[in-house]
Amino acid sequence: MSKPVVAIVGRPNVGKSTLFNALAGEMISIVKDTPGVTRDRIYADVTWLDKSFTLIDTGGIEPDSGDIILSQMREQAQIAIDTADVIVFITDVQQGLVDSDAKVADMLRRSQKPVVLVVNKVDSVQKYMMDVYEFYNLGIGEPIAISAANRTGIGDMLDEIVKEFPEDADTDEDDDIPKIAVVGKPNVGKSSLINKLLGEDRVIVSDIAGTTRDAVDAKVKWKDREYIFIDTAGLRRKGKIKEELERYSVIRTVTAVERADVVVVVIDATEGVTEQDAKIAGIAHERGKGVVIAVNKWDAVEKDDKTIYKHTNRIREVLAYMPYAELVFISAKSGQRLPRLFETIDAVIENQTLRIQTGVLNEILSEAVAMQQPPSDRGKRLKIFYMTQVGVKPPTFVIFVNDKELMHFSYTRYIENKVRDAFGFRGTSLKFIIRERG
Ligand code: GDP
Ligand code: GDP
């Protein structure tokens, strides 16, 4: 099941970033070798009790832009309505209720999305509680008083948020159908690809479970198997500011990737792979999704016998953090190698859910350890006792050792390579958890 998406909406200076940082805190996943992705804090993974969700800061409004604040707020609220399962609307008790709050509240109410109304900067309950009641007038439910700065009221707020999460998606009849997100920069050919796959019988299933999503879902049949393609190119939003557009496209990509089993990252062969491609692919990597790199417009590339190797090498170089990613050279225009794309997607789905028996794993492990001695530090040598697979999507392994400090990143990488040599796992990242055992 995909994680719910929670979006924060509110005027400038009400404390959105402060709340975002308080919630993301230590829990923000830092993947050091993924370029760019985690540095801009547009989204974060948050866990409260036994529930996890993706938190999005729709932010990006310039506080000094005066009378255009309202139109920007509407834009922001629309992004939240389009992409989120729950919207957290933040107001500021010290500034009081203002007109634009009321207008945005109207918009949120009409969307029928679950909204949690939060009144921030209630640093002293005694002093401000009477003012909090005023926010009932927004007509979007009971205001929850918090102080993001003092971190009070946050638990109650999180309780209200998780209460609004949809029931387990098991009731969704499409749940067994693999979901494929098609992501990439503008103009790489995402829409062309989806349209080609759909051909004549385009079936739009965007209102699954009654939610409106900004990504358009389309069901595709291939050799008696069904797939749901999530098209992030579907709707284009006319934004004036470049940063705003970029933020919006990151949000769209993150929410589509979140719902997907496999992510097809489309890149433009005529342009070559870029840092922006690496950033987009990094979102899939970070979330442990299956990844296929579709090198599109292959028809338009002038080729000799070395062209494909040159492209492959360059892509491997720029996407060095995901050597496992599968590459397919396609043309959305001519349909070239689309069968290969489906075969690759199928293989990646299989690898994402592959389970290896503990006995077999430990044979690989003892062979690996015999071939290359584990590292030691100040006379103490790393001992690896045992390894077992504890999960899938992505395949997750626990390695039990005598001392975690001794388990270097490079040695984990070495074991990962041995596991890959034996079982492939093409197209999926692998997760290794190191545990100490006395
Ligand atoms: P954003 O523009 O909505 O992201 O707002 P920020 O998070 O940047 O906060 C705006 C200002 O409000 C900053 O000076 C924060 O320190 C302050 N602030 C945020 N939360 C609180 C709070 O709970 N109490 C008080 N008194 N100030 C806060
Ligand atoms: P999107 O923004 O990623 O959805 O990209 P589009 O699907 O709108 O395609 C952008 C441009 O690239 C359009 O002019 C397409 O006709 C062109 N295009 C897409 N796929 C191919 C392809 O496989 N070969 C060639 N030569 N052009 C393509």
What does this structure look like?
- The protein has helices at residues 16-24, 69-83, 99-111, 125-133, 154-163, 190-198, 242-259, 275-286, 307-318, 338-352, 358-371, 409-423; strands at residues 5-10, 43-48, 51-57, 86-92, 115-120, 144-145, 179-183, 216-222, 225-231, 262-268, 290-296, 326-329, 376-377, 380-381, 384-391, 396-401, 431-436.
- It is α/β, with parallel strands linked by helices and 438 residues long.
- The strands form four sheets. The protein has a six-stranded mixed β-sheet, with helices on both faces. It has a six-stranded mixed β-sheet with strand order 8-9-7-10-11-12, sandwiched between helices. A three-stranded mixed β-sheet has the order 15-16-17.
- α2 (69-83) packs parallel to α3 and α11 (358-371) packs across α12 (409-423).
- The protein is globular, with a radius of gyration of 24 Å.
- The structure holds guanosine-5'-diphosphate (2 copies).
- One guanosine-5'-diphosphate is lined by residues 184, 186-192, 233, 296-297, 299-300, 331-333.
- This is GTPase Der.
- Belongs to the TRAFAC class TrmE-Era-EngA-EngB-Septin-like GTPase superfamily. EngA (Der) GTPase family.
- GTP 1 binds at residues 10-17, 57-61, 120-123.
- GTP 2 binds at residues 184-191, 231-235, 296-299.
